[in-house]
Amino acid sequence: MGTSADHAYIAKLVHHGARITEQRKKLIHLLASCERPLSAMEIYQELERSFPRMSFGTVYQNIKLLADLELIESFVISNQLRYRLIDRDQPHYHFICMDCEKATSIPFNPSETPIPLPQQLTFVDFKLDVFGYCELCSDPGTLVSNGKKTNRIKGADRHE
């Protein structure tokens, strides 16, 4: 564990005077390596494997700290609050599949794209998510669940 992306976020924690714990390192690594945004419960369930005595409250406090330091952002998908790391070095937006919930980063730099704002407004930052269906999920006869493509027709148990 420990990619250069992980180290960049750890350095930001150090810069803000936060204690660096194994749980925080693992949380950052989890969010950096996951292909989709995670709920607090999913984060807890994953971290509990490495830290069985950790409480959900501890996970939530760490999520709150990372959000307060603007290292992660939250948004709602499928009526559930999800979290992902913020990448300020490479401006982009996310395409999020509404079936498998995979998030795909798409390069986008708003400073290179004119955004029609009324004169009295000043652009500071942006957050853009586009929702739809990825190539695997766009077939209307299939549903992706736990990484497996299955037929949506009741009674059909086809897995690819």
UniProtKB/TrEMBL annotation:
Zn(2+) binds at C97, C100, C134, C137. Binds 1 zinc ion per subunit. GO terms for molecular function: DNA-binding transcription factor activity; transcription cis-regulatory region binding; zinc ion binding. InterPro entries: FUR (IPR002481), WH-like_DNA-bd_sf (IPR036388), WH_DNA-bd_sf (IPR036390). Its cofactor is Zn(2+). SUPFAM superfamilies: Winged helix' DNA-binding domain. It comes from the Bacteria. The keyword Cytoplasm applies. Keywords: Cytoplasm, Metal-binding, Zinc. It is found in: Cytoplasm. The keyword Zinc applies. Pfam families: FUR. One of its GO terms (biological process) is negative regulation of DNA-templated transcription. GO terms for cellular component: cytoplasm. This is Transcriptional repressor. It comes from Paenibacillus lycopersici. The lineage of its organism: Bacteria, Bacillati, Bacillota, Bacilli, Bacillales.
